[in-house]
Amino acid sequence: MNTNETLKSIVKEKYGEIALQDKETNAASCCGAGPVSGKVYSIMADNYDALSGYNPDADLGLGCGLPTEFAKIKKGDVVIDLGSGAGNDAFIARHETGAEGKVIGIDFTPAMIEKARSNAEKVGYHNVEFREGDLENMPVNNDVADVIVSNCVLNLVPDKTKVLNEIYRVLKPGGHFSISDIVLQGDLPEAFQKDAEMYAGCISGALQKDDYLGRIQAAGFQNITIQKEKVVLLPDDILQDYLSAEEIEAFAKREHGIFSVTVYAEKPGSKPKINLQDLSSLDAPSCTPGGGCC
After folding, report:
1. N or C: which end of the chain has fewer CB within 10 A?
2. Average pLDDT for the chain
3. Closest by Cα among 206, 152, 212 to 32
């Protein structure tokens, strides 16, 4: 069985290659990895064209949802994008948070970080920052983010409980996340479970849906809500690389399957309210008698 570090190496190597592929190739495969289907354009990715702030240069077709559409980002928010890739969701988040906010993208693939930084320079975003780091040990201080988004990334991380604990740590009290990811209902064919490229393609690393939601709750989050859910259909020309004709027929008749879900959850607590009068007094000189300031 692969160790966690071996799985991370597989993902890092594969996504280093994916950073150099075009969107059409990535979108016709499972998260850019594994076999490519000739029958479909997009297996998992949703269409970003209608979202403000969309940057086609940063869209590699790797997502399985539109978490920024549901993330309730407000002007001035600090947003962290987990597994930020070439910067697609980070740039849309930046449109929502505005120039007065801040967006931090975290990715552990150097080629993706380089591509995202280049894209940020092209559009002149000075409040979007990309940091190289492991989601199991994020390069971010405690209680930093108002909102966390992520698109089809947690399924790639071996220790998902550790990532959820990290999300809890870096969110401010009262902060929330909106995360799109792949989940399962029912068992996958054994061939999927053993294949490294299918792991890098988001499938064999995915959790059962109930387990996924249970881990979010166990990490301390509340008001857990499924904002969107859709079935992921794998075309026969991908399935035939793993399954016989009889197995493909049985797979098509299964009661359960592979799903993309966008989940919202909140960290308990409330953000401190700033009293404007108190805030202004912090910068005001002291006007005591004889102080010479009045």
Report:
1. N
2. 77
3. 152
Domain ranges of the chain: 4-272
Report the CATH fold assignment for 4-272: Rossmann fold (3.40.50)
Residues forming beta bridges with residue 200, ordered by sequence position: none
Range 230-250 average pLDDT: 73
**CB–CB of 182/202 below 8 Å?**
yes
> Which neighbouring-strand residues pair with 263?
179, 226
Mean pLDDT in residue range 114-141: 94
Give the list of residues 6+ apart from residue 230 with CB closer than 8 angstroms, or none: 259, 260
* DSSP for 133-154, written as a single string: -BTTB-SS-TT-EEEEEEES-G
Residues 6+ apart with CB under 8 A from 58: 85, 86, 87, 88, 90, 91, 115, 116, 119
User: Who contacts 42 (Cβ-Cβ below 8 Å, separation ≥6)?
Assistant: 27, 28, 61
pTM of structure: 0.76
Least confident range from 160-169, 198-207, 256-265: namely: 198-207
Helix (H, G, I), strand (E, B), or coil: what is residue 55? coil
Mean pLDDT computed over 107-128 = 91
Taking each continuous run of H as one helix and of E as one strand, the counts in the chain are 12, 10
